[in-house]
Design a protein that fits this description.
Blueprint: E1 2-9, H1 15-32, E2 37-43, E3 48-55, H2 58-65, H3 68-74, H4 77-80, E4 86-89
Helix pairs in contact: 1-3
């Protein structure tokens, strides 16, 4: 199982647009119901976003990254962020009903 965290900070004037684009991804994912992938996005008050994705194989990840709403989110991302996103594969140390086992 691959688990990855992507972290970046948005420019203050772009934070609301970023939220709207992410909400569109979640609406589309709920409709498409892709199997084999789990996705969570968190935001701090300073506009830092954490995207947490978990999937069995690379093809499963396309259940999210292949959505048209995800393409719309990715387009113009550089202009909304203060710097490049930091992508890190992570290992779960503890998990209480947050992620699939």
């Amino acid at each position: 199982m691959t688990r990855t965290v992507i972290r970046y900070q948005t420019k203050p004037e772009a934070m609301q647009r970023n939220i709207e684009l992410i909400e569109n991804v979640f609406r589309e994912a709920a409709s498409a119901a892709p199997e084999g992938v789990r996705y969570l996005v968190l935001r701090t008050e300073d506009g830092t976003f954490f995207h947490v994705v978990s999937y069995e194989n690379e093809g499963d990840n396309a259940g999210i990254t292949g959505l048209p709403a995800f393409d719309a989110f990715a387009e113009g991302g550089d202009a909304r962020r203060t710097g490049p996103p930091i992508r890190t594969d992570v290992t779960v140390v503890g998990n209480y009903r947050m992620l699939a086992e």
